[in-house]
C-alpha cells in the first residue's frame, strides 16, 4: 500500500489585513484501503493542523503523535522562507501521521484530508450529528470534483 501526501501551494489569504493567514493545498494519492477516496485535494491553514494534532492526541492513547512545526511570531528571515519551512514541517507531520495505523483509524484525519468541511462540521460528522456519515462526506466531496478543480487551477 502506498500513500503520498503533499503539502504545497501556500497562499496568503486576506493579504494586508490584520486577519491574514496562509493556507496550504494538501494533495493525497493512495491505493490504501484505509482511505475512501483514492485522490483528494483540500486547502487547510496552520490552526486547522493544530486542531487535528490535538484531536489525534486525544484519541491515540499512548501512541505518540508527530510534532508540528513551531508557531514562531519572531522569525528571523523572510516571510517566504518562514512559509516554506512551515510547509515542509506540515508535510513531514502528515507523512508520519498517514504511516501510523492507530492515527490512520481516526475519522477526523480522513475528513481533514478528504473533505472541505470546517472543523465544527468535522466534529458533528464524527459524532453522527451531521447530515452525512464520514464516508458520505468524503464521497460527496470526491464526486463534486472540487479537489480536481483546485488541482487544475494551480497548474501554470
UniProtKB/TrEMBL annotation:
Give start-end ranges for the coiled-coil region(s). none
Q: Which GO cellular component terms are attached? A: endosome
Q: Where in the cell is it found?
A: Cytoplasm; Endomembrane system; Endosome
The record's annotation in SUPFAM superfamilies points to:
PX domain
Q: Which Gene3D superfamilies match?
A: Phox-like domain
GO MF terms listed in the record are: phosphatidylinositol phosphate binding
Biological process (GO), any one: intracellular protein transport
Q: Which InterPro entries match?
A: PX_dom (IPR001683), PX_dom_sf (IPR036871), SNX10/11 (IPR043544)
Going by the UniProt record, its keywords in alphabetical order are: Cytoplasm, Endosome, Lipid-binding, Membrane, Protein transport, Transport
Q: How does it sit in the membrane?
A: Peripheral membrane protein
Q: Which domain of life is it from?
A: Eukaryota
Ranges where the PX domain occurs: 2-119
Q: Which family does it belong to?
A: Belongs to the sorting nexin family.
Quote the PANTHER family the UniProt record gives. PX DOMAIN-CONTAINING PROTEIN (PTHR46209), SORTING NEXIN-11 (PTHR46209:SF1)
Protein name, per record: SNX11 protein
> Which gene specifies this protein's sequence?
Snx11
Amino acid at each position: 500500500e502506498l500513500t503520498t501526501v503533499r503539502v504545497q501551494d501556500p497562499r496568503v489569504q486576506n493579504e494586508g489585513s490584520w486577519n491574514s493567514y496562509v493556507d496550504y493545498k494538501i494533495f493525497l494519492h493512495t491505493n490504501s484501503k484505509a482511505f475512501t477516496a483514492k485522490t483528494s485535494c483540500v486547502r487547510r491553514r496552520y490552526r486547522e493542523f493544530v486542531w487535528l494534532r490535538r484531536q489525534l492526541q486525544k484519541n491515540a492513547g499512548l501512541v505518540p503523535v508527530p510534532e508540528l512545526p513551531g508557531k514562531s511570531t519572531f522569525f528571523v528571515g523572510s516571510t517566504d522562507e518562514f512559509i516554506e519551512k512551515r510547509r515542509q514541517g506540515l508535510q513531514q507531520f502528515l507523512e508520519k501521521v498517514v504511516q501510523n495505523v492507530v492515527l490512520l483509524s481516526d475519522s477526523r484525519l480522513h475528513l481533514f484530508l478528504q473533505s472541505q468541511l470546517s472543523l465544527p462540521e468535522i466534529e458533528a460528522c464524527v459524532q453522527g450529528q451531521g447530515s452525512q456519515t464520514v464516508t458520505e462526506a468524503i464521497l460527496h466531496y470526491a464526486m463534486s470534483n472540487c479537489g480536481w478543480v483546485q488541482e487544475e487551477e494551480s497548474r501554470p
